[in-house]
Amino acid sequence: MDPLAQLKEIHLPDQVHNYPLAPGWWILAFIVISVTIFLLVKWLKAYRLAKAKRQAIKLLSNIDDNEENQNNEIMGLLKWAALQYFARDKIAPLFGSQLQQFLKDSLPEKFQNKFIDLSQSAFEHRYQIDELSLQDQTLKKAAMLWLQNALPPKKLGSEKQQNVEMMKTNTLEKDQPSNLVSEVAK
User: Fold this and answer.
1) Helix residue ranges per DSSP H, the chain
2) d(Cα 72, Cα 12) in Å, to the nearest integer?
């Protein structure tokens, strides 16, 4: 008897598919997609937050150096940029040395002295008769320094944050209906 005749036909096994993947690959894919989405959202927020900064820098670079009213335009641009990031009631009433102090304080410490040196003459001559004839290139440099390094503002420190929260709480307490009714009754 022939041993080869007793063998059955060779059959191939079913083809092995790549799916379903092992659970570890699904977890890894989920983590990679989640991190990618998180980074994209964070980048998009930062991009949108810096929109006013980019506009201000573009406008500052378009200001003509030989223009007679250059300092006035630069001061207006600085105030506009500050209004985009800081509370209106804090920025709007500032002018002259108060505005200069605010701009200095919003800069990181390593740039504050340079900003003061560059902007001092422009702020000293602000609101004077000869201001319109003064063409100050250093103010433009100071404005560029402030726009590049102060905007968008960093998060408030813990001490400043507590002061802001305390002010909000005091404001909310004053505006509560029970206090308003008692004030009206008086």
Assistant:
1) 23-49, 51-62, 70-85, 88-91, 96-106, 109-124, 137-150, 158-174, 177-185
2) 86
Contacts of 118 (CB under 8 A, 6+ apart): 138, 139, 141, 142, 145
Tokens standing for 144? Answer: 């560029």
Number of folded domains that form the chain:
1
* Of 116, 139, 142, the residue nearest 69 (C-alpha): 139
**Structural domain includes residue 109:** yes
pLDDT in tens, 39-91: 999 999 999 999 999 999 999 999 887 777 788 889 899 999 999 999 999 99
In-domain check, residue 56: yes
Query: What domain range includes position 113?
Result: 50-153
Q: Yes or no: say if 26 and 58 are a contact pair by the CB < 8 Å rule.
A: no
For the whole model, what pTM was predicted? 0.66
- 25 inside domain: no
